[in-house]
Design goal:
The two termini are 30 Å apart. A six-stranded antiparallel sheet has the order 2-3-1-9-8-10. It has a six-stranded antiparallel sheet with strand order 4-5-6-7-11-12, covered by helices on one side. A five-stranded parallel sheet has the order 16-14-13-17-18, sandwiched between helices. By secondary structure, it is an alpha+beta fold. It folds into four domains: 3-221, Aminohydrolase, N-terminal nucleophile (Ntn) domain (Glutamine Phosphoribosylpyrophosphate, subunit 1, domain 1), CATH 3.60.20; 226-387 and 496-569, Rossmann fold (3-Layer(aba) Sandwich), CATH 3.40.50.620; 428-483, no CATH class; 574-648. Strand 11 and strand 12 form a beta hairpin. It contains 28 helices and 21 strands. The longest helix has 21 residues, at 628-648. Helix 13 (393-400) crosses helix 15. It is 42% helix and 15% strand.
């Protein structure tokens, strides 16, 4: 990631270099290779450079239009370079000498914002239209690159991360209590809200244009409009097309100025993408460094049936099949919740939900940095795309009136009566479902579900209007009450999946020198997945039917047949948490008195959870809905974030 920023004086006052220099220094951690500041009357730009591809080394941003004097700064990657170049009449000979930023600027000058759907990749950009005296900010279709802003009547300040805006010194650096409430409740229904008061985020798939007197926002892309129904005559055609799409996506992610690595588990998504990467890199005698999370030394607990705590043997099997894989195991030292946390909070200016997995990611980053890795592949979005489990199959059959097929498929499910009941609930309006629940005296619903796992106080959740926001979002964040699964997933993908991790992705180059890339976030792949029939994902009781076919011959049979079991990362969370519990308790109690968290942090519940961990080695006193492996590290991370910010403001 490179850092981008701009200051626009809407009242036409000239922008001085000094505030831009401050912004540049604050964003330099995201682009250590070179920094540049440019002023042009009432507008000023900042660019700090990180070479995320070989072509990026050619960048000389901000880019300027010779005809109009307009300017352009860009952070990101264009994954369909050849197609986009052809659309703007750029030939292959010229393209090899162009950075992605230069290509995107050429497309912008030709098509403007109406052509943004021609762009495939991850990107954020700021454009100065000099003749019209207006600034446009934009973000990719799924919001994988961050872009923040503060807007007043006389000024716009925009930057990749909030620190670029706060660097000016006249915008108070105050945490947003409501945003913290949502995080502590493990709900994220605010894709445009930063963790700081007065600073917003550009929404995914959106452009925001600011002129001296006006502002406007427009959503330029809808997944629903682009995910058209796909129907082939043979099953094999689906597998063939999926194979082409994932190979294209992985190939785009392999564009790197240096060595490539991959997070590797025993699961389907990471092994498929790693197999493609290893095959591609091996053709030119290049290694693929893989990083597999394993329990700490001395952890001996047996996993439940069908599960796997130690995924090291799966990584070894992959390395045996692909000799150019250089496998690393991460976690034997048992990194606790504070491992790398302060640096991550500084670089991301956000809080991740799973603090212990974040510690493992930090340990991975340290090892990958030592290996010289410049791109690290992951597969988080695989569950939403190629390894989607077909959870909406029964609903789609019910809706289509395919009763014979429905009866056959539902017979493969445990407790068929329960699924018939769910189908009937899905068929009714949500308001009627709620009314029936109240009439029966059933109080369990979204509010109860979230409150039980939340470490925010009920009063804070009520003040934040959280449950109204969930209703507006159109899905229940994991409860599935009266909602159809594939519809929920489309809503989540459109609005929330990208922004949830965008700031974390921005931190990786700053801290460890590599970009974290997920080929399963490729827009072409996502659109195809949501157009494919549910029967391709679940068939005769076989979950992930499509992915099974893709893995055959690509990965070891034991992985394709899931013989290792489903990976349970951070299974050793109790053992890893124990050394940190005294500090967690102290931090939580101290942070609870800060203005940002007073009345927000459910200290009593958190302390009870900590006492349970100390007293009996991890049994949760609040029932199975409260996952201590998430709740306690989450509370520790939020407390550390608030304490860090309180210290920075003194």
């Amino acid at each position: 990631m490179s850092g981008i920023g701009a200051i626009f004086h809407r009242d036409a006052r000239p922008v001085e270099r000094e505030p831009l220099e401050r912004m540049s220094r604050s964003l330099a951690m995201y682009g250590t290779e070179k920094q540049r500041v440019m002023t042009d009357g009432e507008i000023g730009f900042v660019y700090t450079h990180f070479s995320n591809t070989s072509e990026a080394r050619l960048d000389t941003q901000p880019l300027l239009s010779e005809k109009t004097g307009s300017a352009f700064v860009f952070d990101g990657r264009i994954d369909n370079r050849a197609d986009l170049a052809a659309a703007v009449s750029i030939g292959p000979g010229q393209l090899v000498r162009m950075s992605d930023a230069a290509l995107a600027f050429a497309a912008w000058q030709r098509f403007g914002e109406d052509g943004l759907n021609r762009w495939v990749g991850e990107f954020a950009a700021i454009i100065w239209n000099r003749p019209a005296r207006e600034v446009t900010m934009l973000r990719d279709q799924f919001g994988r690159r961050p872009l923040h802003y503060n807007l007043t009547d006389d000024r716009l300040v925009t930057a990749s991360l909030p620190k670029g805006i706060h660097a000016l010194g006249d915008i108070p650096r105050e945490l947003d209590r409501e945003r913290l409430t949502y995080v502590l409740a493990q709900v994220d229904a605010h894709p445009t809200r930063s963790f700081f008061r007065g600073i917003e985020c550009i929404a995914p798939a959106s452009v925001k244009t600011v002129s001296p007197k006006k502002e406007r926002s427009r959503r330029y892309y809808s997944l629903r409009d682009h995910a058209q129904p796909i129907r082939y005559s043979r099953d094999q055609e689906y597998a063939d097309h999926a194979q082409h799409l994932i190979e294209t996506a992985v190939g785009a992610c392999l564009r790197s100025p240096g060595p490539v690595g991959a997070l590797l588990s025993a699961g389907m998504d990471s092994t498929l993408s790693a197999s493609i990467a290893a095959h591609t890199l091996g053709a030119s005698d290049r290694p693929l460094f893989t990083y597999t999370w394993v329990p700490k030394d001395g952890f001996t607990k047996e996993p439940p049936p069908g599960s796997c705590f130690d995924e090291g043997p799966a990584a070894a099997a992959m390395a045996e099949m692909y000799p150019n894989i250089e496998a690393r195991l991460i976690g034997r030292e048992g990194p606790g919740v504070y491992h790398g946390l302060d640096a991550m909070l500084l670089a991301s200016e956000s809080v991740a939900r799973n603090g212990l997995n974040l510690a493992l990611l930090a340990a991975t980053g340290e090892r990958a940095r030592d290996d010289g890795v410049r791109v690290l592949l992951e597969g988080t979005n695989g569950n939403m795309t190629l390894s989607y489990s077909g959870g909406g199959l029964l609903h789609s059959l019910f809706k289509a009136g395919q009763w014979v097929r429905l009866f056959r498929e539902i017979g493969h499910y445990p407790n068929p009566a329960h699924h018939w009941k769910r189908l009937l609930i899905h068929a009714l309006p949500s308001s009627l479902v709620s009314a029936l629940r109240r009439a029966k005296g059933s109080t369990f619903g979204v509010e109860d579900f979230i409150s039980r796992r939340s470490v925010a106080t009920r009063s804070a959740m009520a003040r934040s209007a959280m449950f109204d926001a969930i209703d507006k979002a159109g899905f229940a964040f994991g409860t599935n009450l009266g909602k159809e699964e594939s519809e929920q997933e489309m809503t989540f993908m459109e609005r929330y999946a990208g922004p949830a991790s965008a700031n974390l992705l921005a931190a990786m180059p700053a801290l460890y020198g590599f970009e974290l890339r997920d080929p399963y976030f490729d827009r072409r792949l996502i659109e195809w997945r949501f157009g494919v029939p549910e029967t391709q994902f679940r068939r005769d009781g076989r979950r992930r039917y499509l992915m099974e076919r893709l893995l055959t011959g690509r990965v070891p049979d034991a992985i394709a047949q899931q013989s290792f079991g489903a990976g349970r990362q951070s299974a050793d969370w109790r053992e890893r948490m124990q050394p940190d519990l005294t500090r967690v308790r102290k931090d939580v109690e101290t942070a609870a008195d800060l203005s940002s968290l007073k009345g927000v942090l459910d200290t009593e519940k958190i302390i009870d959870l900590i006492d349970g961990l100390v007293a009996d080695g991890g049994e949760c006193a609040h029932g199975p809905e409260v996952d201590g492996s998430v709740s306690v590290p989450l509370a520790a991370s939020v407390a550390a974030f608030a304490l860090r910010e309180a210290g920075s403001n003194r």
